[in-house]
Structure formats: structure tokens, C-alpha cells
Design brief:
This protein has 363 residues and is α/β, with parallel strands linked by helices. The protein contains ten helices and 14 strands. Strand 9, helix 7 and strand 10 form a beta-alpha-beta unit.
Length: 363
Amino acid sequence: MNAISEDSGTIKLVHTYGLGLHTTDMEPDVHNPVWQKRQIDDFVQFAVLAEELGFDGLTVTEHHAPLMTCPSPHLLIAAAAVKTSRIRLGTAVTILPLYNPIRIAEEAGTLDLLSGGRFELGIGRGAPGEARIALGRDLTDEDLRDAWLESLEVLRLALTERDVTFDGKYFQITRPTSIATRPIQTDFPIWLASGSLDSTGVAGSYGWNVMRNFGSDQSHQEALDHYLQVAAEYGHDRSAENMMVERFVCIGETEEAAERNLDTFSRTFNQFMSHYASNGRTVPKNDGEFATDKKKDRPALSVVGTPDQVIESLQQTLDATGARRLLVETFTPEQARLFAREVMPALKERNAAVVRERAAVAH
């Protein structure tokens, strides 16, 4: 299967998976290894299902707080890689500040080799404050930003060049270094999580892809415009296929069933935020994975309804943002099956028809 960003004019849907958020336990015993193992087993089983259902890709998130048993996304992707053969696999995202970028480059290469050229690396800075706590260092915002930009450059060099040296403030590679495992893909796909125009511009300057979660449709459209402008300035041929927007999906055969699914997910999501806060972290107010709609006490990225209602909502997202890639998360296998059966083909056919009509007019 081609990279997620390839195939101009098509719509692609990638299923992301936050381990722990898919539990239906009323009071999950999040510190119990038996419960934690079940979340991991469920994810690996879902990877097989996602491939069978025809999703274009599957990504896993990274968090370092109880309930979400996904602090090591690369290990999870490795497990999924040996159980699947076609579906694209990635991270959404690997929290780069928690690692040495050389290590991430090598693990990305290993995963691409292991999966037969199906891995796509998503990288981000993580939730506000998470990097400081995990690193055990209280760096200033300026230090964190400078270290982040250096780590991106080291990652790029390690993945694309041999005998790399680097003399930075935060990273020094004094001996010529080549990573031990290189991606098998010639143009290895990298997705940069972007919450600002600055980070979107960074992705454009490198010719990388962009994934976004929280924000208005207008802000996503503005980000896409900025991304394309910067990419062009740096000589990269990018398009709307290189940007992905995230949505949580609670779907049911009826509106009542969809609302019940939303209630279950919202309860688990809010438990996660409580665990996150009790672990000494401040719950971010500007991160799509955390922000909630206070009126309805549900994550602000939620799309809720019957298949027809979900189709209309996601189509509106595509039309309003300009993005041609959707990162969706359903929360039970039954909902994933319903989404794949009713929503996915309808969205793809709608947008394929638009492309055909435009081509006919052009001729």
C-alpha cells in the first residue's frame, strides 16, 4: 500500500488507537498488570481487524500517565507489524523530546524494515509539561523550543545521510555516525504534529507531512495554506494530501446508540484526565486529545451520530479544512466495523466523484 500522503485526489482514513481509552470497565484497575496486558492484547487484535476492514493506516499514541498503557509506541507498532501485512503503521505521535533523536531514527528504520516498508513516523513535542516531567528537568520554554528544533535537524540528518556530525547547544555528534538500521522506503514518511503556524512552517520547510487535532476548521485551513506556501518556498511539492486532521468518532446504528457510545468513551476519557492530573500534571487546555466541550462534558474532537450523520460531519471537516487525510478513532470493534462498512466507502466515493467531475470540466 502506498504511503498515506500519496495518491493525489483520494481521501484516506487512518485509525488511531489510544490504549486504555478503549476499555469499557466502569472502574478500570489501571495499575493492575493484568488489566494493562488486556489493553495491549486488544490493540494487537485491533491491528488485524483494521487491516481486514480496509483502513488505510493504523497509528498508536504515546502518553505517560495511568490508564493509557502506551508509553512505548514503537514496541506496540512492532507487535502490530508482525500480525499484519498490508496496512500502513505509524505513531501519532512519538514524543521526540523524551528520546535521543539518533535512537528514534534507528527505531524508525528498524520498524520500517520489520514491516516491509509500511512504517510512518509521527513526531511531536507532547502535551505541555509532559517532557519536563519525564525528563526530570525544568527547562525554560526557550530552551525546550531550541532543543526541539535541534532534535528535528539531527533526526533528519540521521535518516537521510551517512557519517553525520552535529555541533549544537543541546546535541553534539562528534564522531561521524551512521544509523544501524535505515528505512527501506526511499522517501521515508514523517508526520509532524502541529498546533501552531510556526510548527506547520517547520514541517513545510523539511517537506514533511502535518497532522493536526485541536483547532477550528478555519485554523486548519490557514495552517494548510501556510504549510503549502512554506513548502513551496523550500522547493517541496506538497498538497492537501500531506495534511491530516483528527476526529474521535462515536457511531451507532441509531442516535441513541451513538450517544450511549459517547457516554462510555467520555467517562473513560475523563478518568484519564483525572489520572493525568493526579500524577502531578496540569491538564492542557490547548491540546485536542485533552480539550473538552464543557457544555456536554465530552472531548471537543468528538463526532457523534448515525453513519449518515458521521458522513456529513466528516465531509464538512474535509471541505472546511481542505485536508484530504482524516485521523479517526472509534472505541469498540463494533463501532470500527460500522464505520468501515458505512462511512469509509461513502466518503471515498463522494470525493472520488468530485475529482472525476473536476477532471471532466478540465477536459
